[in-house]
Each structure stands twice: as structure tokens, then as C-alpha cells.
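Margin note from the TA: students keep mixing up input and output lines. Inputs are the sequences; the output is the structure of the whole complex. Example:
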Amino acid sequence: MPMIYVDGQEIEVVQGENILEACLNAGLDLPYFCWHPAMGSIGSCRQCAVVQYQNNEDTRGRIVMGCMTPVSEGARFSLKAENATEFREAVVESLMLNHPHDCPVCAEGGECHLQDMTVMVGHRDRRYTGKKNTYRNQYLGPLIHHEMNRCIACYRCERYYRDYAGGKDLGAQASHDHLYFGRHEEGILESEFSGNLVEVCPTGVFTDKPFLKQYSRKWDLQSAPSICQGCAVGCNIAPGERYGKVKRVHNRYNNEVNGYFICDRGRFGSGYLNSDLRLDYAGIKNPDGSFFAVHQQQALDTAAGWMSGKKVAAIGSPRASVEANYLLRELVGAQNFAAGFSDLDAGLMSSIAAILQATKAQNPSIKQMESADAVLVLGEDVTNTAPRVALALRQSVRNKAFELAEQMGLPAWQDAAVRNLAQDQRSPMIIVSALDTRLDDVASSCVSLAPDDIAAFGYAVAAALAGEQTDNPRADATAEILKAAKNPLIVSGSSMAHQGVINSAAAVADALDQTTSMLSFCVPECNSLGLALMVADGSGSSLSDLAKRASKLDVLIILENDVYRRGDKSEIDQLLSSGAKVITLDMFENSTLDQSDLVMAAASYAESQGTLVSSEGRAQRFYPVHSPAAERLPSWQWLLRLACATGHKKLSKLAHFDEIVAACSQSNPLFAGLVDVAPLNSFRDRGSKIPRQTHRYSGRTAMNSGVSVHEPQQPKDDESPLSYSMEGLNRDQPSSLMPFVWSPGWNSNQSLQKFQAEVDGPLKGGPSGVRLISSTQQGAGVSPQIHKVILKPHQWHLVPMQQIHGSDELSAHTDEIAELAGRGFIAIGQKVAEKLSVSEGDGLLVKQGEVECSLEVRILSRVAKNCIGYSVGFPEAQGLTAGSLVSLEADKKWQRSGPEMIASDKAVFEQVIGGGGASNV
Amino acid sequence: MLSELRTLWEVLKHTFTKAETVQYPEEMPYLAPRYRGRIVLTRDPDGEERCVACNLCAAVCPVDCIALQKDTREDGTWYPEFFRINFSRCIMCGMCEEACPTYAIQLTPDFEMCEYDRQNMVYEKEHLLINGVGKYPDYNFYRVSGMKTASKDKGEALNEARPIDTKSLLP
């Protein structure tokens, strides 16, 4: 490795990196703005200036930009040279010329990179006496607040939003010192990843709007390492709490999973945690159907009384932790335990779990997916089912550009040059789907096929890869592309609700020769795969089995699961109203809970700990951010206490979370790695627990004094190595215990680089999470099953469309997400719309046997023949099932929602009518 | 020996000087306007609450006796939804006043805060907020800061130019 000299100090550097990276790796503080580890250098802010010397005799040197200068053996630099420090100070001074005087009322204050850099370069006194430029703000939707005056024109937002995340509706406008970053007109940002602007922007131009409504400074937030529950990707997050409310969710860096970015569902979809509809107390049903609140012990005694010596069955949940599901399964016995999937999902999940353990390809992490140089997506709109994976796929198509750059000897971090060189050349990505997807814009080819035909297409690709003759030229071409790739990636999943699609993806993966080929499945919920692994031995029962046995059951326990979302209404009615006592553990009131006899108030993910298994097979631990409010208890504690109350032989010996984890890992060879997911409760860093609070956490002696001036003891956490305190160090601990990032002089999230072992590399605390399953590489050995649905005239094939906003059960309870989700819809092609004479925003009656839904029309650009899409999980579309055949007719009684106006018209409208404006900026 | 005699002399000499002790409370001592006593929240010259809930006072407080929650008015300006000082913890160090960017929080020359019940030492915003500007009669934060408020549009703050027309091609 080359050596360079910085201020006389010898530094070992990595060949090919730039001076800025080298300095940061060496632990030196070199200010920067426009450079971002995930987005490379463009040298636009001129902040990371250093002096480079020709040789040992050169005493003057010349100023170069650290981020644009590659390291070379023996090169000499200085950070401390007077002209370099003066230059950097002058840069900040000029950036501050137009900066408004509003740090106290800026949501970035206290975690602002601009504040940090200003202090770091030592700029203090304003010399410029002229006037400051000002800008009008834009309304950018319910998630992002815009305050353009604070902009320093580093271009990070545009480079992230357009270049990295593929957004189209945010960019730089105007010129010289009139530069403006915004939309062409006011409106909701279209990208599903817009929330990352909050973290990407080095100052307060883009801030978190829901957080702003209940704002607290970063130093006042109590944070814990957590795992996003929005989908199965398992992004690492750090929610922040104060005054008992989860105020915001920030990205928590995990090199192998989410890196620096999460999706908007993950960032903004936790508002439901503070909802008034959350359950606070356990309740027993009155004869009139209402519930009366009881103490925890009373609820447990009642339940134990019902259960003693009786036939008890239970339904688990793919959104509850491995530990809670394990306890429930042990409590009632494996044969009486239904996983809580719908019957269809149960089949899909068990086959996905089996395929992942047998396939010849690897099940990649997101980081590995970014290295794919050819991608085949089978039947999945990844942006809506596993959003963070879609962001990785967007990066994978850039591998062509990096390849070209390498041929030219251009380093990959030379962002503008690499993009200029590649122009529109991308690595191939073939998307085979029934309806258009949000990745179509970067796909090399899109194939629109009905679900059955997608499966057939997959098998044809597999056959072509095996050297067989096919009569499908597009499949042949796809096979050629995959064959030529170094790291081909197949992405499929369960969102089509189609077994054939999953099998065909496995067949393609098995047919690939490369040892580095990858196969990834998008699965529905945060612990779907964990639950599938738990019941992989096939011992459990299914929802419909339980419904059939319902009359013979005495007690039914349901864990965090609205079973009405999982099956046919009549079947679930039969299950819940058969006379068995129903005990439900949940956070929210829902239809299942209404049918229960006893309800136990479960704590949310922010109040409990547990392990989730992501779609990658990575088991990751989430920790409570704050202790449970009121009489809520984490589900695992409810179940453990219930087991003790009923005198369960095995479980009543367990007392602590770690013991449950140990028991769970022994119960199933697939869970053997569970004990290594995170350090034990006994872990101490330099003698103390890891603090959840920052060292500057304020108001400790006043927060509760409104209730009583006698200060209570801080809540104790007996189950995890984290404490509800500011005592202890947040430094160098294992990565799974990193609640927040902060380093002296680095108050913003840019302090992350102090926690990374190297820039953009793994954390100093090592990898986080354990991969539970690895493939035996024998091959999944799926056999092609090709069905062909025969459609009658005027019948359409109903294709499920997962939506990032609205399809998820919990995040849909968040106001902002509900606003973005809008109404449930039916998506049709232009031709069908013309045939039915409807247009976007009209209503359509969808008839599926007995079920009839009235849904809003959306027109899609790419639709497979005879296919229509519907929004899954929306209340309006309840009853519709994927894959069924439906008929359509225009809804005569449909009321269109208010007229859509472009911003300029809106301004005129407001002037004329004088009504309350939509722009509350 | 000499120093002992000198000490005796000094003590004896003080017997005939005027006592510094005053008959409090009959006789009130003079407290300078900048004396650090009971904390108040002031209003700006327009009569609005000065506090913008920036949390700097709470952060700087060495005994952590200030707690508040930010809220937003309809026009986008910030104010504290609640603002609480636990005077049973306060050490009157005045660092909150120094940290305050809007001159909202000020210490006053009043130290007479004895209570029989310690709970009464907890002051909420209604107890802290006064109807006056305190020591800084002219300052209004929102007139200086580049944020739009109900009474001030973009570009109307101190030293600000009119908002830029991003569609203009002129230099």
C-alpha cells in the first residue's frame, strides 16, 4: 500500500482512494460538504482544500481539492498549512454570505454539518455587509419541509435524488448565485426515497416534516439500535424518543444491509407508534361487547384459568419477533400452532425457505446486490415490495459505467466523470412483470406477461441456460445476458402470490453456472422468513385447518395478527366465533381484536426487544427505545408470564430474554446462530452498559417534575446491554449496539465516518446480524408447473399491486403515510380504459364472484394482456384475492376526488377565490 | 508572635467599623439589574413570546432543570408548547440566559423563592412568562432571522434582498 505524508506524518493509504478519504481514514478532520461516501466526489464546494507539495524541497506547494486528488506513493500534503486553512475558512465565509440567521428555529440545528464545518474551520465574524439572497419555499408533500434560504449549493440533494435514487422531480434551477433546488412546481415528491434528503442535505434545506411537528433536538433524543418493521429487508434504523413519543426514525448504518439510506416507509411509517388508538391496558370483554381494563396479573390469571387442562391452539405472526413466536409455539405445542400466514402465503414462504437453503446461487446481501452486472426481475415491483432492494438494483446498473471507467483508468469516485463517460450505458436489467414497475426507467428491457406466463418465461430462460432449444427469443436473449455476466442476480418474490413465479426464479438460479450468481426473494413482512424457518419442519397447522377444528377448541391465542387480513372472512368468522375463548395480544384495535374475549396490550417494536429474520436470512436484534408506557408489555413477556401462570414445564424455567434466545436456538438447528446475533445482557463496555441517551441529554430534573418534583429512578433495562441513561460510552462497541452516532466536533450524521473502520466500509464494531441460512448448493430442483388460465370474454386476471404506502398494515395508521396512500385503486391499461370509457380518477366496479369493490381508476403505461392490478391491503379493496378472475364495469355513482391543479393555476385560483391556500410553507 | 499580634489588632479594629449586615427583610439590599435571580421568559416589543423553543437553554443547563417542547404556530414560527423550570434544582448560574439566542430567558433580581412545598418550586410557562421585554427592549428575533412569519414575508428581515425569481434569465 502506498504511503503519503500529511503534515510530515506518514500515512498508509489504499491505492486508488482520494486525499479526503485518506485523511478521514487516518482520523484527521478535513472539512467537506459535497463529497458523500456513497456518491463520490464532484469537487463543487471547494471545502476540502489541502496543500500539495511537489517534493521535499517545495515549501510553497499549491492548493488542491482533497476529494478530487488521488493518492500516489510518497505524495506530500498539508492540512495545517496557512494558505490551506485560510482558504477553507474563506470558503465557509462565502457559503455563509446568504445563510439566514435562523439556527434556533431550524430542525437541523445541533446536527448540522454546516455548523460543524463552520466551527471546524474557525470562521466567526461576518465581514460582508451586503444583503442576503432569499428564496420562496415549496410545498414538497407531507414528508419533507423545504427552507431554501439555508442552501449552500453543494448539489448533494440533486445528486442523491436524481443520480442515486432515480427521482425525476427535484433538481437545480436558475443560475449563478440564484441557484434553487426544488421541483418545477409545488407538489409531493415522487421518489419513495425522498426522506434521505433529510440526512443527505448538509444543512437544513430539507428537514423531516413529521418530526418538525413534535421536534426535539438530536441531543435530547433517546435512541436505540432497531430494525425496521416496514418490510422484510431488515434495514437498520435508530428511532429517537422523548417524552414517551417516538419522534423520528433515522438510518442506522449497516454496511451489508441498508448502508446510508432507507425508504420513506421505514423513515416516516412509524407515526402509528404515537397513535391514540394504541392499547394501553389489558381488557376483558363485557357481555355487551365492550372491554373493561384489567391489571396485567388479572389478565394473566384469567387466561391461565381458561387454559388449564383445555385444548389450546395459537396463531403466530410474521410481524412478531422470533422469540415471541417461539414462546407461543412452545406454549401450545407445535401441532396446535398456526404460523399466521394466509394459506397461500404459507405455501409460498415454505417453498422460499426451502429454495434458499438448496439453491445453487447465493442469497445476497444488499451490498452484494449492488455488485450485480446483470439482473433479472421476475414478477416483482421491487420498489413497492422491498424498497431498499430497488435502490440497490438502481446502483447495480451502474456497474457498466464503473467497468468503462476502469478501462479508462478513471477512479470510481470521480462521479461526474464516470457518469459523463457512461452516459446512458447501463448494465442489463430485465424486468418481467404483469404491470409496469418503478424500476422500468433503468431496465434494459421490460417484458409484460401475466403471472402464469412469467413463470413460463422463467422456465424458458432456465431451459435456454441449460442449452435447450426454446421457442421464446426473448428468453434466449435473457439467458445470453445472464450467461455473459460475472455476477448475475435473479430477484423474485411472493408479491405475485404465485408459486410458479417463485419456482421459475429458482430454476433460473439453478441453471446458472457462475459460482457468484445470486438469487433473492422479496417476502412480505419483517419476520416472514423467520416464521417460515420456525415451521419449516411442517409440524404446524394452517389457518384453514384451525378454522375446521375451531369447534373442538377451548382457547385460541392470537399473537399480533389481524387474521382478517389473512383469509376469507367467512372462514375467519368461523374460527373466531366458534365458542372458543379468544385471547389476543396486539397494539391496535382491529377486527380480530373486536372478536376477542381477552386482550393483552402488546408493546410496540420501540418498547420491546426481539429478533427478526430478514429476506436475506439475516437475524437482527431490535432493542427498546423507551420502556413500555402504561400497562403494555412486550409480547414475549406476556407469553412468558402466561407460561409461568399455567405452570408450563419447560417455559416456566426461563426468566430472561437471553434464556429464551438460547432455548430457541437449541430447539431448531436453523436457529443455531440466534445466540450470536447480539451480545448478551451481561455485556459491558468498560464496565458500563451502552447509553441510549447522548452525553448532553437535557432536562432530566425537569421532565417529570410537572407531575412530581421527586425525581424517579431512571427506568432499568434488565434484558439488554443498553441503559436508559447517559452514563457510559458510545464508542467502539459491537455494531448491533450502536444507538446513535456522535463524535467530538462532528454533531451531524457525518460523524458516522468516525465509527467506520474505513470510509464507506464496515463499522469498527464488526458486522451486525447473523445469517441463519446458507445454501447447500445442491440445487432447488423445482419442477416446472405451467398452468394456463382460460379467460372468458370481459374477464380480467387480477394481479396484486403492493404499494409502499398503504399496503402495510401498521404504517398505514400513520397520518402522513395514509395521506400519500390515498384511496384503494384498480390499475388498468389505456386500451381497457378506452373500452370501458373511463379515465384516471374515475370509479370502476370490480366483481369477483360475490365480492364487489368500487375502486379508483389508475392508468398504467405497461400492462400484460388481460391483466389488471389492484392495491393490496387497502380497506377499499378488501375481499379481492390475487390471481382471481374478475369482471369490470364503470361505477356510475363514483365521486371523483377534488380537481387536481398545477401550482401556477392554484395561485391564480387562490387570488380569485381567496380561499385557504394549500401551500402552508 | 508578630503575626498573632497583628491579627488581634485587625480584629479589634473591625469592632469599630460599620456592620455590613442588614436587617433583612425589613431592610432590602440593593440588587443590580443584572443580578442572577428568579428566571423569567420575556416578550418581544410586539408583545409575542420571545422563546422559539430552540432548546439551547436546556442543553446548557448544568443541572438539567429546564424542560420544554417545541410547537409550531400556524405561520410556521416556533414556540414552546410547555416550558418548565424546576427551581428546586436551579443554581441561578445564568448560563441559560447566555445561551438564549432570542433574549427570551432572563434572570431577574429576585431571589425570594422560599416555599413550604417543594412542588411549588416547579414553574411552568404561565408562571415564567412576563408581559415585558426585560433587559433588551428592542430585540425581535423573527425580524432578524430569514424565516417567513405572519407579519413578515421572505426578504423582509434585516439585511435581506427580495426573494429571487428563479425563472429570470437576468444576471
